[in-house]
Amino acid sequence: MAAAGGRHVGHYLYNNSRILRLNNLQLRSFVWSPATRQQTATAKTESTDTVVLPRKKTWSKEAVLQALASTVSLDHTAYPYQFQDDQYLSPRTNAEFKLYSLSQESGKAAAKYFINTNPKFFTKDFAEPHIPCLMPDTVSLRLDEVSEEALKERISLRKVTAAVDLYDQLLQAGTAISLETTHDLLDLVCLHGDRDPMQEGGQPETEETAQEEAPRRRGGPIRPRPGPSEPLPWKENDNNAERIFNLLPERDTACYSALIRGMVKHGAYVKAFNIYTDMLNNRRTGDVHLFNALIAAAPLVREKWTERWDLIAELLIQMKEHKVQPNLLTFNAILKSQRRCGSLAKSLSLQTLSEMKALGIAPSLATFVHVLVIFYRLATPAHSQSTDIMQETMLEVAGKSFTCQDPDDVQFFYNAMRICLDTKDMEHAYRLHSLMEVGENWRLLGDPYQQSLYYGRFFSLLCMMEQIDVVLKWYRQLVPSRYYPPPQGMRDLLQAVDTDGRLDLLPTIWKDIRALGHDNKSELVEELLALMARENHSPEVQQSFAACALDIRGVYAGDRNRLEWSNSSLSHVTVLLLRATRTHPAWEMLQLFKTKNRVPTDAMLREFLSVCVSEGAPQRAVELVQYSASFGLPATPTLAQQALREFDLTPEQRSIVCELEREVTAQTTD
User: Fold this and answer.
1) What angle do CA 40, 43, 48 make, to 5 degrees?
2) Cα 400 to Cα 444: distance, rounded to the nearest angstrom
3) Which of 568, 625, 576 has the alpha carbon at shortest distance from 601?
4) How many Cα neighbours within 13 Å face the side chain of 103?
5) Do 347 and 426 contact (CB within 8 A), yes or no?
6) Prediction pTM value
7) Is there a smaller number of Cβ atoms within 10 Å at the N or the C end of the chain?
8) Residue 664: CB partners within 8 Å, gap ≥ 6?
9) What are the tens digits of pLDDT across the range 206-247?
């Protein structure tokens, strides 16, 4: 491996074992430590007949891959790792990132669908090491007889419709079904409703789905249809879950728990509490999953804040009576429900955290999410207690590596960064970003949309609070390896450049705006032009501004972006060209005013006349006065007087200028 890949290998020997380790990318020889040599010498003197061989170290199949991965760090100049297979298909803009992400997932889904529906063509496994999750799943049914084993197979393959049909056939045949299998079937039906879950790779289009998609293709009205991961609405007294539940000769806690959790998942909250009341009347005790679901649904069946909390407290009392031990998800459900309890939430959440600590239950990131949302309401200014909560939260999570224990764990980072942005707290933002880089906490950033929210808020806070050098350092680290700034992100960067007076960086930022695909955003382009044309700079800077203005003019002239010239954009580009003494393209811009029927500004015309004076061009000065008079601008008399004063005009030119001055003055007087 060292000869082929140039890898550095170091060697350590301890506990009479030789362990191969990658270190410093250099090949080192095996060296016996002094302690080992002493032990070997002692063993030889004590027994010359027995040879003690060191035990062989057995390496896992992933050891080399893990060692190589530990030597690689993030390349901030590279595109996201999932797009590095083909450099020509690496996204360079935010729109391309979304398009390529969807295309990549669509390709994976199509491949998985083909593999899962035709597993007979993929029976060979040459992968080393063997990774089970990358192998095709068995989705075809193998048992055709009417038996409990066939029912278990359909349940394990998540064939909801087939499992329910076979269950009905077994009941009609009088076949006894074990309680465990019945629990599994009820769990499956309550989880997915009365439809088969979408298999990985999707499902082929059926007649029903074709009829639903037909209006979409014709451009007609679209009927709302839940997605593959969205729960179907609960059909009152017309669903297989309730029917199977009612057919059971004996209903235990697991049956009640499955039905109640299914009702909560599919939005039948009042019905879930009615089933819970029926369970209590039948003297059945609930389990922790049942109570977690009811606590989460409690705020949705009561109107007033106090009534919501009273219902939650009642459920907690009943948990204690049933001797059900709460878990992490129980407390997270309580905190999430307290977010709907208004002004009561702050004091109640602190009591919940104290109880959680007393029971020795370690919080997850979702716990901190709910607490922070309670204390930092949107559009509510932070106060001292909220600030203390944020500080205590960051101290609690600092340096820890978290794993996902609650679906809401992925909401922590972007919500906490939103709070840092609202409170303009740069210190805690840095701490939060450091926490994200600990271990594999980055996996809890959520989906690409949530990741974009996190990095966007972090970058906006940097632009607002830090100096431009620090902002640019982070900008180079985040773009494009982790973040594609939207137009608002680039506007924040422009404001940061303006605040620190580093307008000389604007041409470079314009190149990034074009690379990111935001050159079709008129507001962003006009803000950039306004910053460049606001004041005079050194000749070198003005030349770079003029080159940037010509590039922007090319964008406006192109058909791809379809940007419309405005008075301000025309004026700014013209002024920038004039200040760099690029007279010819500036006159072309002046002609564009006529073509677009736009009125030039007085300041721009004065800039034109100053250039005519510096270049000694009296004829262009006369043309400029004529142009101003054609629009009847109030600045025409001033321009005419300056032309008469600054130039030695011919009698014909002087006559033209004087006549234009009299006409415009008379129009203004009238």
Assistant:
1) 120
2) 13
3) 568
4) 11
5) no
6) 0.79
7) C
8) 628, 629, 632, 633, 634, 636, 637, 640
9) 333 433 444 433 333 333 344 445 667 787 777 889 899 988
